[in-house]
């Protein structure tokens, strides 16, 4: 727009354009320049023409805000990078990262150690319940030895979260590729505590906890979980003890399912002469040997059914869409939490960010996959072609494929109380 003011030609469009160019050059050049010079020039041009000023002020303000946003964005990289380098340097001086979790994580963090050889990996690796007992016993003795808990969130919630033994995770996340919500399933990091702070899932795999002997069962004839109550299967079902750690995600699925619920749990435990075992590998052997036609509540990998299937043994499990009530999505053993009063806080910070990075999650999927069983990382910007088909996260009705690791379902007290009362009835 061109105006003549007291015989002088003022080109406001050029004025604004000059400002845009100057400020953009300043931003992209990584330099900080004052805007005072522009405003002085602009108002000098416009003070005699208030109407023109009002008309153009909105546009200039928008340009200013837009370019400031670019400036802020351009300034983020040095800020996070400086924080990351500071934490990494401190972690190397600490020289150690202590993990308490499932055995597979020891191998995974071996990859971390290759990248950061100055940080030694040590820890306690066992089932979640066993690790929890040891860690809490140590804390009662004023021994604070753990940095990260890496295992299932059922134990994480019902032991460490309730004991207030955790530090919040979000303040420790530094890498932009980790904090970028668009890189994660459903556009967010998946915490399982009410505050969205302490317990983070990295895995979201489909899980089926009903398996069968292929010589004794025609899977096409089984359309529903309720079919297991058929009298022909009486005495032919083995169950993993529903009161033990490792059965938590399965029990949440059955208990909260609108199509199954407490009634299914009660009837499967009371009407089928079901045999309850605390040894998942023995359950797998029994199933493969034909002693039982079905197993329930026990994860496929814990019974080694995936390895048995590769060896040609007659075992199988249902596909996600085979039973009308569906299956469930769970983190399984794929979770992480920061233990408070950690002896190596910087190593924990670096280890946490690496685990959640693209590199860490690719390694996680690769190393945790055995045969036909493995995780499906909640990162969605990594290859998924190697995720076993039966474990791939199904998309669809949340009632049919619920994510059972959610804050409102994590407290197991009501479920365990119900199960124990039901098991008491078996003794009568």
Features:
43% helix; single chain; five-stranded mixed β-sheet; D-Maltodextrin-Binding Protein, domain 2; globular; alpha/beta; 3 domains
What does this structure look like?
By secondary structure, the chain is of the alpha/beta class. The chain folds into 3 domains: 2-82, no CATH class; 95-204 and 332-388, D-Maltodextrin-Binding Protein, domain 2 (3-Layer(aba) Sandwich), CATH 3.40.190.10; 209-326 and 419-426, D-Maltodextrin-Binding Protein, domain 2. The chain contains 14 helices and 16 strands. The protein has helices spanning 12-28, 36-46, 50-94, 104-115, 128-140, 153-161, 176-179, 248-256, 261-270, 280-289, 305-310, 345-356, 358-368, 413-426; strands spanning 2-5, 8-11, 96-101, 120-125, 148-150, 166-167, 190-191, 200-201, 205-207, 210-213, 237-240, 275-277, 294-296, 315-317, 328-330, 335-339. Strands 3, 4, 5, 6, 7, 8 and 16 form a 7-stranded mixed β-sheet that branches. A 5-stranded mixed β-sheet has the order 12-11-13-10-14. A hairpin with a 2-residue loop joins strand 1 (2-5) and strand 2. It starts with a strand and ends with a helix.
């Amino acid at each position: 727009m061109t105006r003549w003011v007291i015989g002088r030609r003022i080109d406001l469009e050029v004025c604004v354009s000059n400002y845009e160019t100057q400020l953009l050059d300043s931003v992209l050049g990584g330099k900080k320049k004052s805007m005072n010079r522009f405003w002085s020039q602009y108002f000098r041009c416009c003070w005699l023409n208030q109407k023109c000023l009002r008309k153009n002020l909105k546009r200039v303000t928008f340009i200013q805000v837009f370019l400031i946003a670019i400036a802020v964005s351009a300034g983020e990289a040095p800020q996070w990078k400086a924080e990351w380098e500071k934490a990494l340097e401190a972690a190397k001086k600490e020289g150690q990262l202590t993990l308490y979790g499932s055995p597979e994580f020891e191998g995974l963090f071996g990859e971390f150690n290759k990248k950061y050889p100055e940080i030694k990996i040590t820890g306690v690796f066992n089932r979640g319940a066993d690790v929890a007992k040891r860690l809490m016993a140590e804390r009662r003795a004023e021994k604070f030895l753990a940095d990260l808990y890496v295992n299932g969130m059922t134990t994480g919630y019902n032991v460490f979260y309730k004991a207030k033994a955790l530090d919040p995770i979000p303040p420790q996340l530094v890498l932009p590729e980790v904090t970028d919500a668009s890189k994660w399933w459903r556009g967010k990091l998946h915490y399982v505590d009410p505050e969205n702070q302490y317990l983070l899932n990295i895995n979201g795999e489909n899980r089926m906890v009903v398996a069968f002997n292929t010589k004794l069962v025609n899977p096409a004839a089984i359309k529903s979980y309720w079919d297991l109550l058929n009298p022909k299967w009486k005495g032919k079902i083995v169950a993993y003890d529903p009161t033990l750690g490792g059965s938590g995600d399965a029990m949440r699925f059955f208990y909260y399912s609108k199509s199954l619920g407490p009634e299914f749990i009660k009837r499967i435990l009371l009407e089928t002469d079901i045999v309850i075992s605390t040894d998942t590998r023995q359950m797998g052997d029994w199933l493969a040997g034909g002693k039982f036609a079905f197993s329930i509540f026990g994860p496929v990998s814990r019974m080694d059914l995936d390895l048995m299937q590769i060896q040609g043994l007659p075992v199988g499990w249902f596909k996600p869409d085979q039973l009308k009530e569906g299956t469930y999505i769970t983190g399984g053993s794929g979770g992480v939490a920061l233990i408070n009063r950690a002896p190596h806080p910087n190593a924990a910070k670096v280890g946490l960010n690496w685990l959640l990075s693209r590199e860490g999650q690719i390694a996680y999927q690769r190393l945790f996959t055995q045969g036909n069983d493995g995780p499906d990382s909640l990162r969605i910007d990594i290859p998924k072609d190697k995720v076993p088909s039966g474990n791939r996260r199904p998309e669809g009705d949340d009632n049919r494929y619920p994510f059972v690791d959610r804050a409102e379902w994590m407290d197991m007290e009501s479920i365990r109380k119900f199960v124990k009362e039901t098991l008491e009835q078996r003794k009568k």
